[in-house]
Prior knowledge:
The chain is an all-alpha fold and about 425 residues long. About 75% of the residues lie in helices and about 0% in strands. It is built from 23 helices and no strands. It is elongated, with a radius of gyration of 34 Å. It starts with about 25 loop residues before the first helix and ends in a 12-residue tail after the last helix. The model is unreliable at about 1-25 and about 415-424 (pLDDT under 50).
Amino acid sequence: MPTKRSAPSARKPTRRPSPGRPRRVEPLDNLLRRALRVLRTNDAVQAHQLLAPVFKGLRSTPAYRTADRLAEAYAVRAHTTFMLGPARSAFRLLRIARKDYPTDARFAALESRMLLQMGRSRAAATAARAALAIAPNVDARLVLAELARRDGRNTEALEQCHAALECDRTRWETYTVLVETLLGLGWTDEALQFLRVAVRRVPRRVRREAWWKLVHTAMPARKYEAAEHALRQLQKSSNERELGEVYVALSEVYGQTQRANDALVCARKALELNPRNLEGLYALLAANVARGSYAAAIRAAATAVEVAPSDPFNRFRLGVLLQQSGNVRGAVEQFQLLQALNPDTPLAEAAAEALSSLDQFQFQQVLMRVSEDSVFRLKLLQNTESALTEYGYVPSLGLLAILRSNEVGQFLHLPLSDKPVRYH
């Protein structure tokens, strides 16, 4: 019986571009403006790529080759070349531009910024003043402000920043130098005030950086209300990766304001987004310690050790929590392991001190039990290590050395040892 053939599957016809519809080409002016915007985000590679069709258009379209376009293109290209290297090529482009456009202050200002990044402070100041002699310029003002701030001339730095704001109130770099100068003077309230102005005025592409600057300025000054407000604004505009960072910071704010339950909620939200987020684990640990939940804090610390086993601080933190919770055996294991993995380090010395403290604690417990329990004392005389293990003690080398020392050994009638153990 003939089988019934299935109908051939219908294929969607391939859509071909119509020959009568040319591909849309972005205007060169737009590309130039985009390159300048991208350059301000320090993405020199993308800015350099955007400039390629601009210079091609400058060569092939005489009508497009105006003085302003050429000057702008050379400025952006010189800056991207400097960021990508080598600096010699960037300065060659600048010399060409300054020769053709001697009255354009942008090139002298750009040269001053490059010289500042190269550490040539005196030459940078000279170039910045040359730019200001031609016309008002924000970049030149910022170079002079930064140089004054580094030299401790804070009043002059503030004057230059205010002059830069008069030229352009939207430049984030101006607010950055201004805030750093105010913080150097100890004027935190004034710095926060300018940051609140900045988040309203700067372009959207750098507004996130401005909010974080406000957070990092408010937290050391214990301005937790301002920090929380900034973090809530960041929360509205964050993607999944950025949101974890915001929740961790919120957890820290709540921890500092004695809101342990809110801190715990934020830490858990950060870990829901990324269970291996170390900062989230630290926040969870701190929140649980604040609530007195040492078992949960120990679990968070143990997870941190699993995520980053090569970080000795994680293991030390776990050992301390185990010690505080009364888990002597677990604490001794972690401290001894830390010493073995990270010898001759400050943390190894801290672990040795912790082990010595644990040995003294156990010794006091043994003395109390010996005075009350004759059976334990008899077993201790027969087999010290076995008796300690049987009764829940950790027979560490340090504890055995203390028990077998001359005075204690004579009191307990234990075999004596004249070789005390030292933790290295």
